[in-house]
Design brief:
The chain is of the alpha/beta class. The chain has a single domain, classed as Rossmann fold, CATH 3.40.50.1010. Helix content is about 55%, strand content about 15%. The protein has a four-stranded parallel β-sheet. α1 crosses α3 and α5 packs across α6. It is globular, with a radius of gyration of 14 Å. It starts with a strand and ends with a helix.
């Protein structure tokens, strides 16, 4: 089964038709059978929806999608963050590194539009 960890920016691009990556995100979404979504990505998505006044109701699109499997973050993810704290330049980097940790921990590809983040997984 083709599965990948979904970064928050992929989730946003799938949901928001005005997003510059929307069409590409839809193609990616359709090419995988399952997306693993870390807890931190759902928090980041919630913050994005509130900040952009899009309504938290849109979270239902993600949490009820049969392609989605929720993944809890654990202490290993936070240990990874601490070990790579030299890469934290902005508060967004904290969530990014935890999402990278989940992809590495589960041994699956990370789908993201953030090229710097993608490099951390390889």
């Amino acid at each position: 089964m083709a599965q990948a960890v979904a970064d928050t920016n992929l989730l946003v691009a799938v949901m928001v038709e005005d997003d510059r990556n929307h069409k590409q995100a839809i193609r990616i979404w359709e090419s995988f059978e399952k997306f693993l979504v870390p807890a931190i990505a759902l928090f980041e998505l919630s913050f994005f929806l509130v900040k952009n006044k899009l309504g938290l109701e849109l979270l239902d699109q993600i949490v009820t999608d049969p392609k989605i499997e929720y993944v809890e973050n654990n202490l290993d993810d936070f240990s990874y963050l601490v070990r790579h704290s030299d890469k934290v330049r902005h508060y967004d980097d904290v969530g990014d590194l935890i999402i990278v940790s989940v992809a590495k921990r589960l041994g699956v590809e990370l789908k993201t539009f953030d090229k710097d983040l993608a490099k951390l997984v390889s």
